[in-house]
Amino acid sequence: MMVEFSIIPLGKDEGVSESVAQALALVDKSGLDYKLTPMGTVVEGCWDDVMGLIKACHAEVLKDAARIITKITIDDRPTRPDGRLTQKIESVEKHLGHALKK
Asked: How many domains would you assign to the chain?
């Protein structure tokens, strides 16, 4: 499964990169395949591993914020193997006939 999530601390400064870095340190150490985007992070793995990681990231960011919002989008397709982080993009590029900006 693939999950895109973002954690938004409220009541802090306008910038959130410090909070994002705290969460991404956990994502990076998790061993799961992931991709950071400007608007969130996409992680690929089994349900328990991914959801456990998001829970840990949520708790980590909440340590330094009075309130946070965590948004989660789940793409669960059990019949497809891992590696969809790149396969989904490659499929779109194949239909277009050229590579897209990354």
From this structure: 1
Range of the domain at 44: 2-96
Place of tokens 């914020």: 65
pLDDT at residue 88 above 90? no
Query: Is 101 a member of any domain?
Result: no
Q: Which CATH number do you get for residue 80? A: 3.30.70.930
Residue 87 lies in a domain: yes
The encoded tokens of residue 68 equal 């946070």
Taking all residues of the chain, what is their mean pLDDT, rounded to a whole number?
90
- pTM of the model as a whole: 0.85
**CA distances to 24, 40, 65, 99 from 54, in Å:** 10, 12, 16, 31
DSSP code for 101: P
